[in-house]
Amino acid sequence: MDLSIFPRRRYYQGPTPIEKLERLSRIWDGPNIFMKRDDTLGAAFGGNKTRKLEFLVAEAIQQGCDTLITCGAVQSNHCRLTLATAVKEGMKCRLVLEERVPGSYHPQSSGNNFLFHLLGVETVTVVPGGTNLMEVMEKEAVKVADLGRKAYIIPTGGSNEVGDLGYMVCAQEMIRQSFDMGITFHKIVVTSGSGGTHSGLLLGLRAYHYDVPVIGISINRKSESEKDLLQGIINKTIAKLDLDITIPREDILVFDEYVGEGYSRPTQAMVDAVDLVAKTEGILLDPVYTGKCMSGLIDLIKKGYFKKGENVLFLHTGGAPSLYAYLPIFYEKFAQNQ
Ligand SMILES: Cc1ncc(COP(=O)(O)O)c(C=O)c1O
């Protein structure tokens, strides 16, 4: 499988590091926890979308587009990174923000919302939760065309058969790093949202005959519906690459117990996980994705899901800028600790 046949821009240097989290691992006398630091990827504050955008933006440029349009939640990391790559390429960027939690959009709020403006977003369109985002983005594309320009629409989270290539590259990196470090990873734990990270990684690993289980922690959907989503992206990517491979349903692993009351709504376990990793490893997770994913990893360790001494690789997909939009819940935790 040769991914170099696809157009790609480069927004990071070399493989992201894999670190052993010694102090965190010691707490439970269970598995050895390793972390792949995709939070250190390039573009503004990094994170998983940078890998997908290398292929998506390259396709946009190849098609002669000068404007990127994408969508996300009001504190979307994907929107921040799409905008940052647009700036780097001298393109414009329009954002459609879905107010998934009613009343959660504040035009002058902190976190990623602030960065949208600092990075020079062209327009922000806020729509209520449940809106057909593709329709709204298509309308934006017409407005861009009326200005004599050409837009490229990137779907939610950059999760499609083009964005998936970014996480197939990550799979290649992990396999190489495992070999170079002389460490076998027995399980990989990843956040499963719009699905491109989990699906690309799983497909990439299987395409290289690497059979490690990839455990997705859902931050939004019930497991069966997340699996449907992942299967759909995987099938399209297989078709794009003309791969002679199938990913059976039972190979798609998703836990949905850590979502709490819904997407982006904090859980106590998330706050505890973010706090613990900050205080034991000096690493910043985020409240919406990696914090809930880590709360899942911790719970699964406590339940004995992983064998003692197994090597578990947690993929840190970034997102820390949105911590600043969640200050009260963390200050509550700090007050309890005093
Ligand atoms: C920090 C972070 N981690 C994980 C995810 C989930 O990745 P995916 O949408 O590819 O499932 C996102 C999605 O926006 C994210 O911003």
TrEMBL record:
Cofactor(s) for this UniProt protein: pyridoxal 5'-phosphate
Spell out the InterPro entries in the cross-references: ACCD_DCysDesulf, D-Cys_desShydrase, TrpB-like_PALP, TrpB-like_PALP_sf
**What are the UniProt keywords, alphabetically?**
Pyridoxal phosphate
**UniProt GO BP:** alpha-amino acid metabolic process
* GO terms for MF: D-cysteine desulfhydrase activity
Q: Which residues form the Tryptophan synthase beta chain-like PALP domain?
A: 12-318
Can you tell me which residues form the catalytic site?
S76
Q: Which Gene3D superfamilies match?
A: 3.40.50.1100
List of residues that carry N6-(pyridoxal phosphate)lysine? K49
**One matching Pfam family:** PALP
Query: Does the keyword field hold Transmembrane helix?
Result: no
SUPFAM superfamilies tied to this protein: Tryptophan synthase beta subunit-like PLP-dependent enzymes
Read off the PANTHER family from this record.
1-AMINOCYCLOPROPANE-1-CARBOXYLATE DEAMINASE-RELATED (PTHR43780)
The record's comment on protein family reads: Belongs to the ACC deaminase/D-cysteine desulfhydrase family.
Q: What is the protein name stated in its UniProt record? A: D-cysteine desulfhydrase
Q: Which organism is it from?
A: Formimonas warabiya
